[in-house]
Amino acid sequence: MNFPFYIARRYLFSKKSTHAINVISAISMVGVAVATMALVVTLSVFNGFHDLVASLFTSFDPQLKVTPVTGKTAPADDVILTKIKALPQIEVATETVEDMALAVYRGRQAMVTLKGVQENFDSLTHIREILVGEGIFELRAADLCYGIPGIRLADMLGTGIRYDEPLKIYAPRREGQLNMADPSDGFVEDELYSPGVLFNVMQAKYDRNYILTDISFARNLFDQQGMVSALELRLKEGSDFEATKEEIKRIAGTKYHVRDRFEQQEDTFKIMKIEKLIAYIFLTFILMVACFNIIGSLSMLIVDKKKDVTTLRNLGANEKQITRIFLFEGRMISAIGAVAGIMVGLLLCWLQQTFGLVRLGKSSGSFIVDSYPVSVHPEDIVLIFVTVLIVGFVSVWYPVRYFSKRLL
């Protein structure tokens, strides 16, 4: 057995001549455990919100989205897009045309993002799961084009779930000169009718700004005949997602961007990652403060064990071995605190996942979820354990060497 480790283990669990040393050692372990538990719980809550937001976007965003690098649109019959659609891994491919427009209903108006999609859009996404109303997902019937607004946009315009009057849509003309005598001539005007449903993604970006309609309506309104803003894709079940994505990127070359769901919402998830990183850094500083208790405990232990150190020297122990005894003592306190903190943190996360102990609000249904979401990621647990060990090991190295030289 490692001689310094054996002695350090005896010192850690044996009764000291001064009872305060045992108390301070216990407080040191508890301090490290509490800081570790806080890291586990906090990072898991951030993961929970990340997964919750990702699940909301999944209802509206495609698995993969191909968009032109330059300009808003590209030819729908582009050879590159045709090759991508022909890949055996692709189950659903939908062309879309998307741009800004003005929506007017009974005197109320709002700038909206009009997204024209093909009839198979419901096969591409989970749009049917987030519809509100008694109608069905329908984009056109004969010569009538339907418009499905987000639930918050419908509230802003006062349309209700089923609007009785046509929703007027205006977009600037792409060609020709503006007639100052008749400014309205500079806009293309068209009408959308209600299919009796709204969509509710539970994200303001979509619910407050978007209207879904048929792609032919969008092409006519924006004068984009034969063009697409994006090619949205869903892969066949069992396909290797990353390999397929890389193959599509290779085909797209430098002419098109290929983005997955997280990359389509890059700003949102980047902010969440930064918040999680800042929380991790702050809690690590708290962990460092907790480790100062270990330094106090070790300094008192060194003074208490002066006679034992003399005996160890007489038995043949050198200075390096004696120093390592107290280094092992500090590291064991850190390790035990880390394990205890992780176990308690995981227990709290399980309780929150199972019973929702900490609520988001007093009234049920006020938020998307009633209690704080929690998701434990194994890589975070490994990171936390390594962080605690490194902080604990580093914090005791210099003080132990210093006190060993001065007091022993």
Report on this model:
By secondary structure, the protein is an alpha+beta fold. The protein has helices at 3-13, 19-58, 79-85, 121-124, 151-157, 204-207, 215-222, 241-252, 261-264, 266-304, 306-314, 319-355, 378-407; strands spanning 64-68, 74-75, 90-105, 108-117, 131-133, 140-141, 144-145, 147-149, 167-172, 187-192, 197-199, 210-214, 227-228, 230-235, 256-260. It is elongated and about 100 Å long. The two termini are 24 Å apart. The mean pLDDT is 87.
Radius of gyration: 32 Å
Shape verdict: elongated
Secondary structure tally, helices: 13
Please count the beta strands (DSSP E, at least 2 residues each).
15
Largest sheet: 9 strands, mixed
DSSP helix fraction:
40-55%
Q: What structural class is derived from the secondary structure elements?
A: alpha+beta
Q: Termini separation (Å)? A: 24 Å
Which runs of at least 5 residues are low in confidence (pLDDT < 50)? none
The proportion of strand residues reads 15-25%
Roughly what is the average pLDDT, rounded to an integer?
A: 87
The ordered string of helix (H) and strand (E) elements is HHEEHEEHEEEEHEEEHEHEEHEHHHHH
For this entry, what is the oligomeric state of its chains? single chain
Itemize the secondary structure elements and their pairings.
Blueprint (H helix, E strand, L loop, with lengths): L2 H11 L5 H40 L5 E5 L5 E2 L3 H7 L4 E16 L2 E10 L3 H4 L6 E3 L6 E2 L2 E2 L1 E3 L1 H7 L9 E6 L14 E6 L4 E3 L4 H4 L2 E5 H8 L4 E2 L1 E6 L5 H12 L3 E5 H4 L1 H39 L1 H9 L4 H37 L22 H30 L1
Parallel strand pairs: 4-12
Antiparallel strand pairs: 1-14, 1-15, 2-13, 3-4, 3-9, 3-14, 5-11, 6-7, 8-12, 9-10
